[in-house]
Specification:
heterodimer, A: mainly alpha, Rna Polymerase Sigma Factor, Chain: A, 2 domains, B: mainly alpha, 3 domains, elongated, disordered N terminus
């Protein structure tokens, strides 16, 4: 049976940064904040599905910011997520061309708070495109790159979970896959800016 | 690139992966510092690695997302406009209540008997006599001169136990911060007036006695007198007893 637990903000941030107890920490974020953030979207012209999608995007961006030290704990996680959620949702409404004037006015009032994070989550379309391109990479390549660069597994560990014969074969394959992905990305110059924003904030 | 970067792309990836050590690593860093093309290649690899990381993170969250959506499947209620308006009104009302509550708490915890006393006490002034004070008693003269110890001494020496003498003794005792003495003197005035038709300084004694009780922290007795004065429209001090004073004394009884 899964033990459900909450983490204090500081411990949660530490877990997300270090990658330790990642699943538990992400679940804790969902349990603590999904309902109120979902409520906001659903009461501002959104559907349940919109709320779920936006929340998922918010969580991804939040973790990414934490891992890049962009979240310095100057506000609580709750406040920060609420701000990201509102900004992302208003952004989506604008994209759909039916942003509410009232919310825009409210948003202007919050401008100072959100300017600190907005540049980090702007360019949602660019990010979607990045995801799409990595998704288009062959499954084998994607798996090797993810194991190495996201899961931080060594070549030996990757060898154990794949069918390759030697570490060198895995290494060569990983190199080819990386170069292949690099080429796919560089074919779309506008993605460089998106990735630079992701990398440097 | 010079010859040292033969197999450059592979070496660069090794550097990206943190696999170059010692002099190899240093050499690569030196080359990156001077070779703009190599640096550009390296940045391109950094961005590519970033795309993998972002995709991995997205996948990680997506995997848990569907699981959590099942767990958190309880529908979130969408407010209708009328309910939303009601909610705003309730929020405003709650804010007002909160402010009022904070104000009440502040008032309650900062309220003291001395504060209430000071806000309501004013030294009793003797009326001016046309004969230049020739007909005044020793107590009155001492009181007018602000010699409160002398007023009390005269009283205690049994030289002036008239209602006026008792009353001045009470006020003088208040000026000397002797609450017990003041209470005793004012009660003497009220006792003396009980059996007479001409009530001398009776209203004044009641008011100052109530203040004496407040300062002596005998709030129930003070409240009883204050209510009596407030209920009596003919009382000389009826106007002096405000709703605020009543409320403050009641609050003091709760502490």
């Amino acid at each position: 049976m899964e033990v459900i637990r909450n983490f204090p903000d500081s411990e949660l941030v530490e877990n997300l940064k270090s990658g330790q107890r990642m699943d538990e920490s992400i679940k804790a974020i969902y349990r603590s904040h999904f309902e109120s953030l979902c409520w906001y979207v659903m009461n501002n012209s959104g559907s349940r599905q919109d709320a779920e999608d936006i929340f998922q995007e918010v969580v991804v961006n939040f973790i990414d910011m934490v891992q890049k030290d962009k979240f310095r704990g100057e506000s609580t996680i709750k406040t920060f997520l609420f701000s990201l959620n509102r900004y992302t949702w208003l952004n989506e409404l604008k994209r759909r061309g039916r942003a509410m004037v009232r919310e825009e006015k409210y948003e202007r009032g919050q401008e100072r708070v959100e300017m600190d994070t907005s540049h980090f989550i702007d360019d949602r379309e660019g990010r979607s495109e990045v995801l799409r391109i990595v998704g288009e990479l062959g499954e084998t390549c994607r798996k090797i790159l993810l194991l190495f660069y996201y899961e931080n597994m060594s070549m030996k560990e990757i060898l154990d979970v794949t069918d390759y014969e030697t570490e060198q074969v895995v290494r060569n394959k990983k190199y080819k896959c990386l170069k292949q992905l690099e080429q796919m990305i560089m074919e779309k110059p506008f993605l460089k800016e998106t990735l630079k924003n992701l990398l440097h904030g | 690139m010079d010859n040292s970067t033969h197999n450059g792309p592979e070496r660069l990836v090794q550097y990206l992966d943190g696999e170059l050590q010692g002099s190899d690593k240093e050499k690569m860093e030196q080359q990156l510092a001077v070779d703009a093309f190599l640096k550009q290649q390296y940045e391109s690899l950094l961005l590519t690695r970033e795309s993998v990381h972002y995709f991995g993170l997205k996948e990680k969250v997506a995997g848990l997302h569907s699981q959590m959506m099942k767990e958190l499947a309880t529908p979130v209620v969408k407010l209708k406009p009328a309910r939303r308006m009601l909610r705003y009104v309730a929020s405003v009302a709650a804010a007002i209540l909160l402010v009022a509550g904070l104000f009440f708490a502040y008032t309650f915890f900062t309220l003291s008997s001395d504060k209430v006393y000071s806000a309501n006490y004013k030294r009793f002034e003797l009326s001016t006599t046309r004969d230049g004070g020739v007909g005044e008693t020793a107590s009155e003269k001492a009181y007018r001169a602000g010699n409160y110890k002398e007023v009390v001494r005269i009283h205690d020496a049994d030289e002036d136990h008239t209602p006026k003498g008792e009353f001045l003794c009470g006020v003088a005792a208040l000026e000397l911060n002797d609450n017990g003495k003041a209470i005793k003197c004012f009660n003497e005035v009220l006792d003396a007036n009980k059996n007479t038709t001409e009530k001398i300084l009776n209203d004044e004694a009641e008011y100052y006695l109530s203040l004496s009780y407040i300062r002596n922290k005998e709030y129930d007795k003070a409240l009883s007198l204050i209510n009596k004065i407030k209920d009596d429209k003919e009382h000389v001090y009826h106007e002096k007893v405000s709703v605020k004073l009543l409320r403050q004394v009641k609050m003091l009884t709760w502490r």
